[in-house]
Amino acid sequence: MDKTVNQKAWFLVLPVLVLVAFSAVIPLMTVVNYSVQDTFGNNQFFWAGLEWFSEMLESQRMWDALWRQLTFSAIILAIEVPLGIFVALNMPKKGFWASVCLVLMSLPLLIPWNVVGTIWQIFGRVDIGLLGYTLSKLGISYNYTQDIFAAWVTVIVMDVWHWTSLVALLAYAGLQSIPDAYYQAAKIDQASRWKVFRYIELPKMTGVLMIAILLRFMDSFMIYTEPFVVTGGGPGNATTFLSIDLVKMALGQFDLGPAAAFSLMYFLVILLISWVFYTVMTNLDKRDATS
Amino acid sequence: MAKITLDNLAHSYLPNPKSEDDFALKQMTHDWADGEAYALLGSSGCGKSTLLNIISGLLIPSQGRILFDGVDVTDQPTAARNIAQVFQFPVVYDTMTVKENLAFPLKNRGLPADEIARRVQKVGAMIGMEAELNRKARGLTADAKQKISLGRGMVREDVNALLFDEPLTVIDPHMKWELRTQLKKLHHDFGHTMIYVTHDQTEALTFADKVVVMYDGRVVQIGTPEELFETPEHTFVGYFIGSPGMNVLPARIEGDRAMVGDGSIPLARGYGALKGKVEIGVRPEYGRLVTQGGLPVTVNRVEDVGRHKIIRATFFGHDINLVAGEDQQVPADGARVEFEPERVNVYSDDWRVVGQAA
């Protein structure tokens, strides 16, 4: 069949081009623009080349924030994924209590980030917070504004409280899609509970778990509001994660150039990790289809 | 290997069954003889799978007991009953190789490695997958997966019973024959008690020594294929088995004659007064078109199915089917039909009535 050539068809793509331009390309280019220039105020800019990038790559401050960030993401993934699976395995499969569980599990997901931060900020206070007060009465030294360990524990427990539901709900959806026949066959084969999990449930959940891990990694890697409200990045810089540091640099110190270079590298890291995930997941699918 | 006894067994999926209609499986008492191959035949939703799951312990019956060789196992879990069961849709462990899949039930029972290897090799050959033993089960075709499921059922040699729940539904026709032959051979070699659920009559009749026909939660007849064909105990057996099924016509019985409309059909035996709904049943194979004698019939359509012809006709206002030989002439009009008196069965409320001695 001959294709009709009509260049006017490009106009049909125009709306989406405009939309993407305004929502993504132009803002990103503004950042690129700042990252290669320097200013002394008065809206006067000078060409700086890749200077800010090399400065940022040599900056101990950025590397520290990156390591804190990676540590944080690794810890919350290591807790939330197994815990979420465990919760999903123990949720009722159907009936009234299944619905109750689903609603309860969804609740933390519906609370805005800054509210979650405020809840935990008050919850953990030694003078009036239920958690902080109880702990200190029990003789446990706990003060997230002064003690680095306490601050980390608070931020991590808060994230686990807020987001484990998401992993649990996804894992639950994966479990629900396993036909009864698998469990029946496992009983016939005399498989132990562990083997049922290892050879039936876990393989069937692989897909949703990959999505859960990706979502939780991305979100935790960009976390800002909650730790900012609770600890403000402190004590010292102990809980200053990448985005908190970025905001400090860009708005606190108004170092637009370095902050822009920092954002671009931050963006590239996220892009890279997403690409790796995407590749791994599509390869898993391919293995399913062909091997 | 064991004799399986169902003692006053009944099952309902409702928590508080009130009437008999609430029961998926109506009360029944049956013995399944040790070492026999049974086919459980019936239309969808008649309780076949329910019965199977009760025997394997996946379901606990609402009432009654189930015994293996006289030992009550009603409350025993599946694992303790030592039963192998194959399901309608393939169940394979994706992350394992074919070999590991087959070895799985044996490993879980702690058999020695060399014994496992020997049996897996043998079953691999039986299901025709020797070449693929070391390959991952993920991504195999549906019928290959079902062959693995079957293999996992066959790999255990000491089971009390082997249960199959429509296992060949997803398998292509050529492979069906081969696997069925393998199952029969397995039965011959080891003498397991086998119960094979199906809604395909050919499958049931070729596989089993005894066919158990279920209808609406009840076992309506247990018999050899021949018994089911010649003397269906229930009208359902009559029209479910046979192609086309038995003609069932409402009738009045007067001594040794059955009246269908104005037509009078001779019977081989006399029958007394019958209660309820009275019908006669006669297989299409036992009606003959004749030119003289018999009763008038209107031929509507003739279907040539190759080996024989199926004649669709109207007989005193009722649709009937007849089977005629390839070379038989079918008169355009004025056709008459004659039934073999010995082959006409009489039913009262759907159950067969035995005639008085002639």
Short summary of the structure?
The complex is a heterodimer of chains A (291) and B (358). Helix content of chain A is 75%, strand content 2%.
Topology:
The complex is a heterodimer of chains A (291) and B (358).
Chain A: H1 10-35, E1 37-39, E2 45-47, H2 51-58, H3 60-90, H4 96-110, H5 113-123, H6 130-137, H7 148-176, H8 180-188, H9 193-221, H10 225-230, H11 242-252, H12 256-290
Antiparallel strand pairs in A: 1-2
Chain B: E1 4-11, E2 25-32, E3 37-41, H1 48-56, E4 63-68, E5 71-72, H2 78-81, E6 83-86, H3 98-108, H4 113-126, H5 142-154, E7 161-165, H6 173-190, E8 193-198, H7 201-207, E9 210-215, E10 218-223, H8 225-230, H9 235-240, E11 247-250, E12 252-254, E13 257-260, E14 263-266, E15 278-282, E16 287-290, E17 295-296, E18 298-304, E19 308-315, E20 318-325, E21 336-339, E22 345-348, E23 351-353
Parallel strand pairs in B: 3-8, 3-9, 6-7, 7-8
Antiparallel strand pairs in B: 1-2, 1-4, 4-5, 9-10, 11-15, 12-13, 13-14, 15-22, 16-21, 17-21, 18-19, 19-20, 22-23
Helix pairs in contact in B: 3-4, 3-5
Written account of the structure:
- The complex is a heterodimer of chains A (291) and B (358).
- Chain A is mainly α and 291 residues long.
- Chain A is built from twelve helices and two strands.
- Chain A has helices at 10-35, 51-58, 60-90, 96-110, 113-123, 130-137, 148-176, 180-188, 193-221, 225-230, 242-252, 256-290; strands at residues 37-39, 45-47.
- A two-stranded antiparallel ribbon of chain A has the order 1-2.
- In chain B, helix 3 (98-108) packs across helix 4.
- Chain B has nine helices and 23 strands.
- Chain B is globular.
- At the A-B interface, helix 8, helix 9 and helix 12 of A face strand 6, helix 3 and helix 5 of B.
